[in-house]
Amino acid sequence: MKKYAEITGWGKCLPPAKLTNDDLATFLDTSDEWIRTRTGIEERRVSAVGTSKMAVVAARNALAAAGLDAEELDLILVGTCTPDEIIPNVASAVQRDLGNKTAAAFDLNAACSSFLYGLHYATQAIRTGAHKKVLVIGAERLTRILDWTKRESAVLFGDGAGAMILEASDVESGLLASHVTCDAEARDVLSLEFGMSFDRFGFDGIMPFNFIGQEIFKRAVKGMNTAVERVFAETGLTTDDIDSLIPHQANKRLIDYLAKMCNVPEEKTVINIQKYGNTSSATLPIAFCEAVEQGIVKPGDTIVSAVFGGGLTCGAGIIKWGQRVTPIRDNTETLPDTGETALDLILPLYQGTKAAWEKRGDE
């Protein structure tokens, strides 16, 4: 009998500190109108703690929704491009803090596509019988890697985490079809030059963040269009069979385009970019959580998702939700509020980078 990877738990973590467009305008040459009309973003969250801490909160909420204990997990997969450190991985910190002793644990970096990539491979692991209960997380602390002097990219991103529990099931559910790919010829249009080639001895406080918006948009449209067509062809479904669209939250214009392409009306398109900005790998699971909480996702619904990210990675999936949309246990754990405002957290980063650029200009 064919095995499916049913989504039985869902959870999110959103830092309490909010950075509004008006806050950004206090130190950048921008305005609320400039940002909203170009991106749809009104505010974003800024975390005072590392990626793994947010991932753990999201994971605990997902476990609560599924009614599982952490020791029942046999695989923990974390999608992120902003790990706390290079070694060890974020997934091992999640495993430790959840109290799990035996699960396999690893990170996956496909940038903004990481969560869908994670669902894709976790689903295959369950279908082959290699794993039975899998925790998939998307978590990012992007505010720590941005160049806050660059308006074009600084206004786009925020912090957060989301998670899902996948369990082996005989009932048709979960990720029914998915297609993931990478347009590597354009890998440099979205990149952060900070890795093993990085000269830590010559570091002057600037981490060059390359972001060529128009080229990213063009290739994202093409890549997601192809991926969506592939999953429709694989399942034999059409746009008439789709109950809702839950896409990567990168840009309101791109989401509108994708909704038009999938023939999904506005009321069935999940959009929360206005509240959180682009949280990279976390956008998809956070959006799913909110869609379930708000009653947009109903028992047995068929959902289409599409993503793109640095690499340029890309993908799409068709998900059939199970019969449960109510968490078994309370799944509303949050991070403690440190009392720091978003500006308290961001202004030192802005001032340090600005000083580094000025010093470089003087040399």
From TrEMBL:
Primary subcellular site in the record, as a coarse category: cytoplasm
CDD domains: KAS_III (cd00830)
Entries under Pfam families matching the protein: ACP_syn_III (PF08545), ACP_syn_III_C (PF08541)
Any one GO BP annotation for this protein: fatty acid biosynthetic process
Gene3D superfamilies per UniProt: 3.40.47.10
Keywords: Acyltransferase, Cytoplasm, Fatty acid biosynthesis, Fatty acid metabolism, Lipid biosynthesis, Lipid metabolism, Multifunctional enzyme, Transferase
GO cellular component, one term: cytoplasm
A GO term for molecular function: 3-oxoacyl-[acyl-carrier-protein] synthase activity
Residues annotated as the enzyme's active site: C112, H248, N278
Domain called Beta-ketoacyl-[acyl-carrier-protein] synthase III N-terminal: residue spans: 106-183
InterPro entries: ACP_syn_III_C, ACP_syn_III_N, FabH, Thiolase-like
Keyword Lipid biosynthesis: yes
Quaternary structure, from the entry: Homodimer.
Record remark: domains: The last Arg residue of the ACP-binding site is essential for the weak association between ACP/AcpP and FabH.
Purpose of the protein: Catalyzes the condensation reaction of fatty acid synthesis by the addition to an acyl acceptor of two carbons from malonyl-ACP. Catalyzes the first condensation reaction which initiates fatty acid synthesis and may therefore play a role in governing the total rate of fatty acid production. Possesses both acetoacetyl-ACP synthase and acetyl transacylase activities. Its substrate specificity determines the biosynthesis of branched-chain and/or straight-chain of fatty acids.
The protein's name: Beta-ketoacyl-[acyl-carrier-protein] synthase III
